[in-house]
Amino acid sequence: MADRDREAGGVTCGAIQDGSLEARQNQVYHKLIGVMDPELGLSIVKLGLVYDLEIEDGAVTVIMTMTTPACPLGEVLTRDVQRLVGELPWVTAVAVRIVWEPRWSPAMIR
Amino acid sequence: MEPGDDSLMASPTPGSKALPVRPAAGGSPATAPPARPTAGRPALIFPAILSLLAGLYAGLGRVGWDLPPLAASLAAAHGPLMIGGFLGTGIGLERAVALGRRAGFIFPALTGLGALALLAGLPGPWGAILIAAGSGGLLGASIGIIFRQPALHHATLALGALAWLGGNVLWLGGWPVYRVVPWWAAFLVLTIAGERLELSRVLFLSRGARTAFAAIVAALLAAVALTAAAPAAGARVEGLALLATALWLLRHDVARRTVRQSGLTRFIAVAMLSGYVWLAVGGVLFALEAARLVGGPPYDAALHAVFVGFVFSMIFGHAPIILPAVLRVVVAYGTSFYAHLALLHLSLVLRVGGDLGGWWGLRRWGALLNVVAIMLFVANTVRAVRRRAPAPSVTAPPEGAPLTEAIP
User: Tell me: the pLDDT tens digits for A61-81?
Assistant: First the structure.
């Protein structure tokens, strides 16, 4: 748990109790840490695949990329994102948008 | 997406058309029929599985097991069924899923139809024509990826597809399988190596490592081309290039790191690293036995070190993550997966040992146990398949917007 908290930028469960936008973003990032690239054993957050979040009321849009357009795991990761982020009690909808710009590079690994 | 597929998928590119989705719970707009989670894909996988089973059966006959012949042409179709029907269709499907476009599924459909034509023993070269057409499609799709993101690893994938197409065209032209096999081997080795290079970028590969990789790819392609004019010399150079590929992968692949993790991630790494050892063995055998790679035990040993030891090891490792991507099921990893991986390697030691030592019984039993290992892999994988928990219902997004899933 401590490692996950560090990956999430120091956000802890205790710090994300309120309903502010920032707190909700942190909660979503915290959930996204649980979405793993199965081959690398690394979180999509750690890999730098998550580019942005859009939150409007309970609707969350995760804007992310893949390391390559040749990777067939886009659907799998999309479903994992939807499942985990959807566990948050205030979330009513989860969208995933996969983008190719900016192009992912290893320098994005956090 | 594939025909009939209405299931959820994020827009593959910015601004691409949003897909219809399932009706939402709780009174949200329901504009699409219920999802058909895997519609179309099993039909495309079916010829690949049939090719695998028929190819293995034919392979047992080829090593001397006295089995009832299912079809007169089956023994000769062992290689085309395994490479084109099974692996080619599987790789084509994987690429089509990645691209997320309906048209991408046409090409594995063509190779699958080609395999069925081979199995049916259709008169004329219909099997070769369809498989060659499918491999051309894979090349086109791979070039499309280069246009989207120019990179060495994408070029390597495309060159692998080019080698497959080249081999298939020669096969269609009437060349015997043993003359075409160097091309097909390059297809699989370049495809896997390109994917591993892509993945291993997380290690921040040095310029020297990348240059060495590019040089090895160039050498492998040059060797394949050389086999067309001078088979023995070409096979010798190809063997050295395969050995160099294996050494590069053993040195630079991220599996060296991920093998220290646990669970599925470690299993994949073990499968990859053990496969690289077989690729090295295959390379050495290609180089040493270059003049005799026309049939018989040295041919059997060299080819199956690459195709069974290297390629099937990769398949065993990646099936738990590729099947969920293609079929939208969950494959629950278990330590029992090491059983089929270990049996594959042990049985291949017996087979190659029998080949090289002239012990025919050992070779036959080794080949049979190869098949048992693959069947055990199928059984263990099927046992591990879980249907995904029903996804929460989703609302149809407006045109051009990302797909949205409503959480009840």
Answer: 999 999 999 999 999 999 999
> Per residue in B94-109, pLDDT tens?
999 999 888 899 999 9
Q: Global pTM?
A: 0.86
Handedness of CA B153, B155, B156, B161 (dihedral sign): positive
Reported as half-sphere exposure (CB side, CA atoms, 13 A), residue A39 has a value of 23
Structural domains of chain A, count: 1
Give, to the nearest 10 degrees, the angle between helix B263-288 and helix B337-357.
10
Any B CB within 8 A of A110 CB: no
CATH number at residue A85: 3.30.300.130
Across the interface, whether the CB atoms of A93 and B407 are under 8 A apart is answered yes
Question: Could you tell me the residue range of the domain that residue A33 belongs to?
Answer: 2-108
Inter-chain residue contact A103 with B11, CB threshold 8 Å: no
Residues of chain B positioned with their CB less than 8 A from the CB of A93: 395, 404-407
What pLDDT score does B38 carry?
52
Predicted interface score ipTM higher than 0.85: no
* Torsional sign, CA B122, B124, B126, B131: positive
- C-beta atoms of A97 and B404 within 8 A: no
